[in-house]
């Protein structure tokens, strides 16, 4: 086992407390995002909006695993094999004991679990009992990549942290009440209903959190908003007075915007064509559309910073890929403005949305017909805070709001206590 401790400037997305101990009497929530070979965690004070500690267990079940635990400006890295999720979480709890913060004194009132697919069953957070576990299990066919991994995390966490309630917070919940016209595909009704094929959306916790922050920042509850969550996965939502009325991800996160490795919208007949003409199998096409397309498939790299470097070096294909990316964004914002009958606020969030001023400027420039104007100074200012980046002459407020899914999960979890 190798252990290294370093001072770190790497911040989890929730603000890190300068005093890492939770305030007297404050409640905390341990937020867990369990993946197939990883567990991300964060200890959050939901009232103060602070991350008291965070970390990541990676490469579970592989020859060499790793744990990174961050607390009080220190980062501890451990390299050792981690047999399974139970071992990984037990190690994390040991690190809390050894490195702090002491969970027995942190007033942990709940464990919040991120769950990607809640199907039609969950329109809000759910207190986890055996019945909820069964329902998440039933939803595995709709979330085959994510739900099995969440179930592993839930199982081991309920065992190791048995004295506190566990709450599932679903990525689909915010989109549960989409108008039927937005949620139902024009697919044969019987087939669609038999196989539960409809728009579920994803990134809902982020869209809900960010649109709520925008309302708070602008001091208006009645806004017509578009939120662009642009990370390696990317999605758009249309939100009217706090309620989602459309979103770009569909049955799965494949639909919609151009993403790091996903096509986003594509004619489904491309599947028939590839099967018939190229002789590809379903799994091969799945991999092609979900992992080997998008910016990666267009340019060879899924990192937007690298795409810009190539554009600056004069690579025509990189510029063309960016044009495709921007075109799709502009198309969605325009469509959602039409669906909502107007647009008050356009917000950029996640890795690309929060950091890529050049992309924001290109998108807003193309939305000039809606009266949107960027303030070049505000847009390029580097800041981790939620802020308005449109000019005073803009008819649409353009904002950058850092997303914070862990804080949103923690806040939702405490609403059930
Ligand atoms: P996320 O999935 O939200 O963590 O976002 C990850 C993506 O954000 C990366 O793949 C990068 O493409 C992008 N990203 C991060 N920093 C920047 C930056 N400074 N400029 C442009 N893109 C960035």
Question: What does the secondary structure layout of this molecule look like, with pairings?
Answer:
Elements: E1 2-7, E2 15-16, E3 28-34, E4 39-45, E5 50-58, E6 65-71, E7 74-80, H1 85-99, E8 108-115, E9 126-127, H2 130-138, H3 147-160, E10 166-170, H4 180-183, H5 189-194, H6 204-218, E11 224-230, E12 234-240, E13 243-247, H7 269-277, H8 282-290, H9 294-299, H10 304-312, H11 316-340, E14 345-349, H12 350-355, H13 357-366, H14 376-380, E15 387-388, E16 397-400, H15 405-414
Helix pairs in contact: 1-3, 10-11, 11-13
Bound molecules: adenosine monophosphate (AMP).
Structure, described:
The chain is of the alpha/beta class. It folds into two domains: 2-170, ATPase, nucleotide binding domain (Nucleotidyltransferase, domain 5, 2-Layer Sandwich); 220-405, ATPase, nucleotide binding domain (Nucleotidyltransferase, domain 5), CATH 3.30.420. Helix content is 36%, strand content 22%. The protein has helices at 85-99, 130-138, 147-160, 180-183, 189-194, 204-218, 269-277, 282-290, 294-299, 304-312, 316-340, 350-355, 357-366, 376-380, 405-414; strands at residues 2-7, 15-16, 28-34, 39-45, 50-58, 65-71, 74-80, 108-115, 126-127, 166-170, 224-230, 234-240, 243-247, 345-349, 387-388, 397-400. The strands form two sheets. Strands 1, 2, 3, 4, 5, 6, 7, 8, 9 and 10 form a ten-stranded mixed sheet that branches. Strands 13-12-11-14-16-15 form a six-stranded mixed sheet, sandwiched between helices. A hairpin with a 2-residue loop joins strand 12 (234-240) and strand 13. Helix 10 packs across helix 11. The chain binds adenosine monophosphate.
């Amino acid at each position: 086992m190798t252990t290294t401790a370093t001072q770190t400037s790497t911040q989890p997305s929730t603000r890190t407390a300068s005093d890492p101990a939770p305030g007297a009497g404050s409640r905390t929530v341990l937020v867990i995002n369990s993946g197939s070979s990883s567990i991300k965690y964060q200890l959050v004070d939901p009232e103060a909006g602070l991350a008291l500690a965070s970390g990541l267990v990676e490469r579970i079940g592989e020859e060499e695993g790793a744990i990174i635990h961050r607390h009080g400006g220190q980062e501890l890295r451990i390299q050792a094999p981690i047999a399974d999720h139970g071992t990984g979480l037990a190690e994390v709890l040991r690190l809390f004991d050894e490195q702090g913060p002491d969970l027995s004194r942190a007033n942990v009132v709940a464990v919040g679990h991120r769950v990607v697919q809640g199907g039609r069953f969950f329109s809000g957070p759910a207190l986890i009992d055996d019945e909820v576990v069964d329902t998440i299990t039933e939803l595995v066919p709709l979330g085959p990549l994510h739900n099995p991994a969440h179930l592993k995390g839930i199982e081991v966490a309920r065992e190791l942290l048995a004295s506190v309630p566990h709450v599932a917070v679903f990525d689909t919940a915010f989109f549960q009440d989409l108008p039927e016209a937005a949620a139902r595909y024009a697919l044969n009704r019987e087939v669609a209903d038999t196989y539960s094929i409809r728009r579920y959306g994803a990134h809902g916790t982020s869209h809900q959190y960010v649109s709520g922050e925008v309302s708070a920042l602008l001091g208006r509850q009645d806004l017509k908003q578009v939120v662009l969550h642009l990370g390696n996965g990317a999605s758009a939502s249309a939100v009217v007075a706090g309620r989602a009325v459309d979103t770009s991800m569909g049955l799965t996160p494949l639909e919609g915007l151009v993403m790091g490795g996903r096509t986003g919208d594509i004619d489904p007949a491309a599947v028939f064509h590839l099967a018939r003409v190229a002789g590809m199998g379903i799994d091969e096409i799945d991999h092609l559309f979900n992992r080997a397309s998008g910016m990666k498939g267009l340019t060879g790299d899924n990192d937007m910073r690298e795409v810009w470097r190539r554009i600056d070096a004069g690579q025509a294909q990189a510029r063309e890929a960016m044009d495709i990316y921007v075109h799709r964004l502009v198309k969605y914002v325009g469509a959602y403005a039409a669906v909502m009958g107007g647009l008050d606020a356009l917000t950029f969030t996640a890795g690309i949305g929060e950091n890529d001023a050049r992309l924001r400027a290109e998108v807003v420039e193309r939305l000039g017909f809606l009266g949107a104007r960027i303030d070049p100074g505000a847009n390029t200012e580097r800041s981790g805070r939620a802020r308005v980046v449109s000019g005073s002459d803009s008819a649409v407020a353009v904002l950058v709001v850092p997303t914070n899914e862990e804080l949103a999960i923690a806040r939702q979890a405490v609403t059930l206590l």
